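ok so i was messing around last nite and threw this chain in just to see what happens. nothing serious, just curious
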Amino acid sequence: MLAIGLLAAGATLTGLLPHHAQAAPAEDAVAELQHDWESIRYQAPAPERSQRFEALAAKAHKVSAAHPGQPEPLVWEGIIVSSLAGEKGGLGALGLAKQAKALYEAAIAINGDALEGSAYNSLGVLYYKVPGWPVGFGDKAKAKELLQKALSLNPKGIDPNFFYGEYLVETKQPDQAIPYLERALQAPTRPGRQIADAGRREEIRSLLDKIKPH
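result:
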């Protein structure tokens, strides 16, 4: 019986080990993608961003493929592809936006709560930035639903508060946006995300300057 028990325990451990062995490299790879993204987004000269995001998107795709069933690489691949779409702009970016949408949806299907609901947040942003039918899939009501879901998972976070505030501005509700933007400004700096947080705070201040009465 003891031998059978040990064999069973061994089988269980063998089943678990690959998952644990993969977890740390996935986290490391995602952290590297994060760092590369924020360096491009907030520090690279504008003319270089598109090409660099394109290279980073290819790198992110390899990370996602290397870690199937894990939502975090999919979220970051989506963020990078979305950023590339933003740099390209115009109707030519729509295909990239659709690609990012599929990545966020895949991440949500695995675990939407991962990365404090970042997939909901990022998908919500796409829904209010992309044109609506018949050009694109944009949908302000869907955007609101997703952004509020992200806020419920990370109510004090800099990104969900900023993007919900931006959504309110873009939907002609600037007065309602101010508390969310101010909350985003007060959010604590995230460990290892200093570049992104500093850049985001600049965006928040800029938006507040536009909508606050002077």
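not much to say yet. The two ends are 79 Å apart (CA to CA).
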